[in-house]
Amino acid sequence: MFNDVDFVSQFRRGLEEAIKLLPSSLELVIGLHSNGEEQKNNFGNRGEHNSLHNGAVKGEEQDGGKDRSKKKGRKKEIVDLRNLLLMCAQSVAHYFTNGHDARLVGVGSGGHEQFSFLNSQRITTAEYLKAYQVFLSFTHFKKFTYFFANTMIMEAAAKSETVHIIDFRILFGFQWVILIKFLSNKEGGPPKLRITGIKFPQPGFRPSERIEETSHRLPNYCKRYSVPFEYHVVVSRNPKP
């Protein structure tokens, strides 16, 4: 598809080409005067009519070369209306989709500049991780929760070749980095780690965007510690009662 700059340039180009197809106001006035003269000549004498007719013929013969050159020049100005309308429709669909996505996500219904500005205000993964580290440094309850859960998993999977974890609301998956490190130090080599991440779909046209980012992050950790890894994504809502 096109980016925003291409859509604006295509729209302006279409506007210029459409203006070329419309007759100018001067041509319309000349056409009205010529029609009036023809009606007047019909009621006048034949001598005046013949003289005007002969003068018009001479004028046409003199301007014949100019008319031919104008016709040749007009051929170069032919516009492909089909492609022009398709590009206009694509640009309208592009902005409509962005606006509809903004409404679903809840970032407002303003112009495209406002939509881009509000999108830039979203919290990135790196910013979330920094805030999460500050949170863990001030409270130790979360640390003990992760440590206890990872210890129980290691004891339950002491003799297993595959460890399958189902994580509801996995979010970024930061808590599994410690488990990956524990598995890498296991005697006899690390087992295969399989994680199924289940999360509510986020609003908009990309409901699994954040959980798919986690699917790219966790394999990097496993590759660093040489742990076989498999990841599955499930985006689901709670069934209505």
UniProtKB/TrEMBL annotation:
Q: Ranges of Basic and acidic residues compositional bias?
A: 39-51, 58-67
Q: Where is this motif: VHIID?
A: 163-167
**Which positions carry the signal peptide feature in this UniProt record?**
none
Entry's InterPro entries?
TF_GRAS
List every stretch annotated Disordered.
39-74
Q: Sorted alphabetically, which keywords does the UniProt record give?
A: Nucleus, Transcription, Transcription regulation
Decide whether keyword Transcription is in the record: yes
Subcellular location(s) of the protein: Nucleus
Q: Which GO terms describe its cellular component?
A: nucleus
Q: Which PANTHER family match?
A: OSJNBA0084A10.13 PROTEIN-RELATED
Family the entry assigns: Belongs to the GRAS family.
Write down what this protein is called. Answer: Uncharacterized protein
Q: Which organism is it from?
A: Vigna mungo
